[in-house]
Write a structure and sequence with these properties.
single chain; 197 residues; alpha+beta; Nuclear Transport Factor 2, Chain: A; 6 strands; globular
C-alpha cells in the first residue's frame, strides 16, 4: 500500500464514523415524527383540512374512547331526551350555556333537563377530542343543534358550538364533568356590519 492511500482511507473511515451518529439520529427521529403525526390527529396538535377526526387514518386510543363516549351520549339523548341527558353527568358536574348562569351539580342539571324528545330534539356532532396524559380526563368539542316548534307550530332551530369535559370515575365509568355551549360565530363579513335602516 502506498502512503498516499492510507490518509485517504483514514479520511473516508473518519467521515463514515462521524456520519453514523447523524444517520442514527435521523432514523430514530423518523418514528418520533410518525408518532407525533399520529398524535396530531388530536386536532389540537396541528390544524387539519378534515373537519371530522373520524376521517383521519390514525387516532389515539384516548381520542377513540372519547369519541365513542360522545356517540353513546348523543344517541341516548336523541332517544330519551332530557332524562337521559342528566344521567351522563357526574354528581359535581357543571353546565355553562351561552347567556345563562352556571348550573352546578347533577341534581340541578337534571331539574333543568326536562325536555321530551318528541318536543325538543338535541343533536350534536363531535369535531375533535383530546385525552389528557393520565388517561383519566379528556374533552370533546363540536357542533350542536336543537330542533323544536314555536307556539304556532313553526320550526325553531338553534345551533352552536359545544365543549364537553369527561372524567373517569373511581368505578371505571366515564361521566361528564363539564358541558359548555355557545352560539355559532358570525359568518365571514357579518361580525362588524351595521344594521341597515
Amino acid at each position: 500500500m502506498s502512503k498516499s492511500r492510507i490518509p485517504h482511507r483514514l479520511a473516508v473511515l473518519l467521515c463514515l464514523v462521524s456520519a453514523l451518529p447523524l444517520a442514527a439520529a435521523q432514523s430514530l427521529a423518523a418514528p418520533a415524527i410518525q408518532t407525533n403525526n399520529a398524535a396530531a390527529f388530536d386536532p389540537l396538535g396541528t390544524s387539519s383540512a378534515t373537519t371530522s377526526p373520524l376521517a383521519q387514518p390514525t387516532l389515539t386510543p384516548g381520542v377513540l374512547l372519547l369519541m365513542e363516549l360522545e356517540g353513546r351520549f348523543s344517541r341516548a339523548v336523541a332517544s330519551e331526551g332530557g332524562k337521559a341527558f342528566s344521567t351522563w353527568f357526574a354528581d359535581d358536574a357543571v353546565t355553562l350555556n351561552n347567556g345563562r348562569p352556571a348550573v352546578l351539580g347533577r341534581a340541578n342539571i337534571s331539574a333543568q333537563a326536562q325536555w321530551d324528545p318528541k318536543d325538543y330534539q338535541l343533536t350534536w356532532t363531535p369535531q375533535g377530542a383530546q385525552m389528557g396524559p393520565s388517561n383519566d380526563m379528556g374533552f370533546t368539542w363540536g357542533h350542536y343543534e336543537g330542533h323544536s316548534k314555536d307556539h304556532n307550530g313553526n320550526p325553531v332551530v338553534i345551533s352552536g358550538r359545544y365543549f364537553t369535559v369527561w372524567k373517569k370515575m373511581p368505578d371505571g365509568n366515564w361521566k361528564v364533568a363539564m358541558d359548555a355551549s355557545a352560539n355559532e360565530p358570525p359568518e365571514a363579513g357579518e361580525c362588524c356590519v351595521l344594521p341597515k335602516p
